[in-house]
């Protein structure tokens, strides 16, 4: 087991290095130079342009910039944003926090509700409830996230907040009032992301359940007189969980991109929206920092998944 | 056992439902605020509230609320006194004596004196700070005469209109006791809000980039203007749909800029007043006019035929300005014809008319210029046999411009010109456009200032350089001479005549085909607020100081 974990860790580190290198060179291949854009829009003098190039390290050779970049990645020093003129790391942490609040709630709900609905549909395969759940989940899974956001926004505008993270007119709210205000604002985006992504979990679970229910050991369990609840949660779910784990790990990346659309529609100040704005304005430090952190999140999630796989099914080998 | 499990489940569901209802009831409560607040929705907000960093879009309006300038733009494109009570030129026009009012104070209670005025101008001049450098460029130095008087010495005699609209209207007067401790490098960085104070009627009390800016009325603002509200929240939305929805349900008093395709819906809504600012912005098609690009003899980018003004005229005759402006900027925009939009009033050369849409005229121009379809493929060729096929590039996102570009391409095809339309990222396009001129034709846009100087400067040779403002690369010494002269003109009428001549040169040389003039249309929720819409007719629209200070929220 230890050797397995060590191998997975080593793979992760190698992947991380390639991500760092790609992250660095990819942005420098993009046409347009950010300091020139800044110089033009802010009418900066030649001496100020030189100062900024020095500040952002853009006057150094590409190799020197790359070495500095690796060092900064390892110390989580992402530099200064070209656009915001603030340190990137605290900016990313703040925005990541806003996104996590949104994504965590919806991911957990999407998995829990998707699995429960998938179990139900699997047991009732072919029946009206199965067809209804399947049809509804496919519908929401197929629809573009931004379209679902806009429908919900149109339906619930005036009932629930449709923009931002908090009520800007609340004066010195208590923690409880601030928490309730956050809950109000997070409701719509969370509901949208949940119903969009639970479909994937429902489909995977349902398919696994229908497959597992045909196995001999399930027939044996039934013959032994075990209750449906016991069969479901002790036998069926455990065997259906492996593909679900992989899906959950992969969904982190997808949910971040879905969060981007949701954040833009609901004006949620998260990392997806920051990434979108940074792409438009060539804010390299923010782009690189965001990509790096998101890559780290996906790598870490995959590592945890791989390790969890081994625990759940010791037969798994790489 | 199954029956008891089902009963237990039902009981749990009932409890969950009751809990949800309770939570929703609690969540549905109204916000608690003792202050009277005006909320405004914007689509692009500032990334910083440092005036030396952020000078785009809504921030222009914000800085005029927070800082005093000597003069301030008002309705009708004029300027009125703000911090200055008198601006008196010397007989030779080289020195201006500026007197300021005695009752202005900064947020921290420090009175505004001539020292602050002199310091601000000299700080900008010495440190060559940002976009303000161009406005302070006529100044040699500013010296203090007494506590309320400064002497501004110019490098050379400048037109008074130019000075009023630029130097005296654009420079925010900064507190010397704060900014004298801020270095040039720190001045373009991230500064705390307590350093970013002015003497205007508002102060920035809270700011989150990409989210909102909160402006509180200062004590001094309450004393002098007695506005009927305590603060303004400028809320930034990432998309227009959510902003419009919030406005519809009454969560916003103002929308700064209504997307034009939403205007028909807004016009039908009850309790909505719309107001459009003067049209000082323009949209145009640009022809590659970088001289070096043509000297290199490239067959493509630019196509050699694009140098020919007759070809440009022909393309103008198949460009329907009336249709283009409505498609791209909606019903409140105006068909363009030449460089200065109608919002520049007397500076706009009204003798230059829209060329219009006439396929036959375009065909005749091309035939007279010697273009023939020698291979009968429907596309004309030059005398050298080069087909008249051009790439037309648009910066993303350009949904409406692309719509019209397609129409233009079909019209051009009727006269034997092939236009290949494509969209690319803005910075990618800019890198191709300037300064190497690796393009044929592009769609572009300019946002104007109150004074026409900036828009006119874009086409000077001084800007047709690396990191300059020029997109077309146009360079004409006669135009440059007139540009320099208009800044130094002895009177408004003399300046007007020079600027009219400049527009005639551009109309003839046609580096641009201007197809649209437009302003910004804002919306006021009249069920929540009353206001004098006439006061919103300056460049800041519904976020102008005059308009905001007269707003009255309804109870």
Can you describe this structure in just a few lines?
The complex is a heterodimer of chains A (318) and B (555). Chain A is built from twelve helices and no strands.
Verbal overview:
The complex is a heterodimer of chains A (about 325) and B (about 550). In chain A, about 80% of the residues lie in helices and about 0% in strands. Chain A has about 325 residues and is an all-alpha fold. In chain A, helix 1 (about 1-30) crosses helix 4. Chain B is α+β, with helices and mostly antiparallel strands and about 550 residues long. Helices cover about 35% and strands about 20% of the residues of chain B. In chain B, the strands form 5 sheets. A 7-stranded mixed sheet of chain B has the order 8-9-10-1-11-19-12, sandwiched between helices. The N and C termini of chain B lie far apart (about 60 Å). The interface between A and B is large, with 57 and 62 residues.
Quaternary assembly: heterodimer
Mean of pLDDT of chain B: 90
Of all chain pairs, the largest interface belongs to: A-B, 57 and 62 residues
- Estimated helix fraction of chain B: 25-40%
Strand content of chain B: 15-25%
Radius of gyration of chain A: 24 Å
**Could you say which overall geometry of chain B the principal axes of the C-alpha atoms support?**
globular
Separation of the first and last Cα atoms of chain B: 61 Å
């Amino acid at each position: 087991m230890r050797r397995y974990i060590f191998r997975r860790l080593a793979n992760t580190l190698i992947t991380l290095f390639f991500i760092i290198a790609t992250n660095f060179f990819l942005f420098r291949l993009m046409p347009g130079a950010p300091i020139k854009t800044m110089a033009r829009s802010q009418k900066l003098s030649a001496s100020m342009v030189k100062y900024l190039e020095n500040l952002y390290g853009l006057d150094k050779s590409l190799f020197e910039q790359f070495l500095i970049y690796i060092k900064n990645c390892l110390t989580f020093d992402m530099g200064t944003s070209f656009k915001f003129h603030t340190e990137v790391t605290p900016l990313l942490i703040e925005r990541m926090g806003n996104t996590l609040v949104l994504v965590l709630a919806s991911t957990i709900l999407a998995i829990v509700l998707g699995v429960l609905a998938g179990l139900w549909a699997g047991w009732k395969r072919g029946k009206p409830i199965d067809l209804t759940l399947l049809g509804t989940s496919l519908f929401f899974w197929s629809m573009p996230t931004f379209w679902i956001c806009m429908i919900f926004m149109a339906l619930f505008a005036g009932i629930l907040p449709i923009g931002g993270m908090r009520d800007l007119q609340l004066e010195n709210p208590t923690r409880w009032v601030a928490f309730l205000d956050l809950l109000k604002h997070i409701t719509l985006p969370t509901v949208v992301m949940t119903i969009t992504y639970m479909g994937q979990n429902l489909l995977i679970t349902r398919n696994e359940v229908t497959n597992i229910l045909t196995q001999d050991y399930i027939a044996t369990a039934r013959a032994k007189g075990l209750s449906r609840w016991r069969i479901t949660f002790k036998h069926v779910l455990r065997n259906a969980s492996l593909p679900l784990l992989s899906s959950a790990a992969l969904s982190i990346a997808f949910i971040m991109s879905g969060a981007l659309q949701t954040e833009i529609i609901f004006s949620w100040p998260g990392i997806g929206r920051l990434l979108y704005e940074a792409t438009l304005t060539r804010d390299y430090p923010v782009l690189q920092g965001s990509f790096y952190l998101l890559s780290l999140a996906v790598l870490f999630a995959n590592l945890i998944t791989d390790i969890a796989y081994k625990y759940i099914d010791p037969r798994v080998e790489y | 056992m199954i029956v008891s499990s089902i009963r237990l489940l039902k009981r749990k569901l009932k409890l969950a439902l009751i809990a949800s209802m309770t939570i929703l009831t609690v969540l549905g409560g109204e916000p608690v605020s003792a202050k009277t607040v005006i909320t405004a929705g914007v689509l692009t907000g500032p990334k910083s509230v440092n005036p030396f960093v952020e000078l785009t879009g809504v921030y222009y309006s914000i800085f005029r609320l927070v800082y005093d300038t000597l003069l301030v733009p008002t309705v009708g494109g004029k300027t009125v006194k703000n911090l200055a009570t008198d601006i008196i030129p010397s007989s030779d026009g080289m020195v201006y004596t500026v007197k300021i009012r005695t009752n202005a104070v900064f947020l921290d209670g420090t009175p505004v004196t001539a020292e602050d005025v002199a310091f601000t101008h000299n700080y900008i001049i010495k440190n060559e700070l940002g976009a303000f450098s161009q406005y302070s460029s006529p100044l040699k130095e500013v010296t203090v005469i007494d506590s309320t008087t400064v002497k501004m010495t110019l490098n050379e005699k400048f037109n008074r209109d130019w000075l009023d609209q630029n130097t005296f209207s654009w420079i925010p007067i900064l507190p010397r006791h704060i900014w004298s401790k801020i270095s040039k490098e720190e001045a373009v960085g991230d500064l705390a809000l307590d350093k970013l104070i002015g003497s205007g009627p508002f102060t920035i009390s809270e700011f989150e980039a990409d989210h909102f800016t909160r402006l509180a009325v200062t004590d001094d603002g309450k004393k002098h203007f007695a506005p009927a509200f305590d603060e303004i929240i400028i809320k930034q939305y990432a998309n227009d749909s959510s902003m419009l929805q919030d406005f519809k349900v009454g969560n916003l008093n103002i929308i700064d800029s209504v997307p034009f395709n939403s205007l028909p819906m807004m016009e039908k809504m009850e309790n909505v007043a719309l107001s459009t600012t003067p049209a000082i912005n323009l949209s145009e098609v640009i022809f590659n006019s970088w001289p070096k690009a043509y000297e290199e003899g490239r067959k493509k980018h630019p196509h050699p035929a694009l140098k020919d003004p007759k070809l440009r005229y022909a393309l103008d005759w198949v460009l329907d300005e009336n249709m283009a402006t409505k498609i791209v900027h909606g019903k409140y925009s105006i068909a363009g014809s030449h460089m200065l939009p109608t919002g520049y009033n007397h500076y706009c050369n009204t003798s230059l008319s829209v060329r219009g849409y006439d396929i036959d005229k375009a065909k005749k121009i091309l035939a007279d210029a010697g273009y023939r379809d020698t291979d009968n493929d429907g596309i004309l060729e030059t005398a050298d046999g080069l087909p008249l096929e051009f790439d037309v590039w648009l910066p993303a996102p350009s949904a409406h411009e692309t719509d019209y570009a397609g129409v233009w391409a079909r019209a051009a095809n009727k006269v034997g010109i092939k236009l290949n339309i494509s969209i690319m990222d803005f910075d990618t396009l800019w890198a191709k456009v300037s300064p190497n001129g690796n393009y044929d034709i592009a769609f572009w846009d300019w946002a104007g200032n109150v004074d026409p100087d900036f828009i006119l400067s874009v086409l000077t040779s001084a800007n047709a350089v690396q990191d300059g403002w020029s997109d077309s690369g146009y360079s004409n010494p006669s135009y440059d001479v007139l540009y320099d002269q208009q800044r130094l003109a002895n009177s408004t009428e003399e300046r007007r005549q020079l600027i009219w001549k400049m527009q005639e040169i551009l109309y003839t040389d046609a580096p641009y085909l201007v197809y649209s003039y437009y302003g910004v249309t804002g919306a006021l929720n009249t069920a929540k607020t009353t206001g004098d819409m006439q006061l919103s007719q300056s460049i800041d629209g519904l976020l102008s100081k005059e308009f905001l200070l007269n707003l009255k929220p309804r109870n």
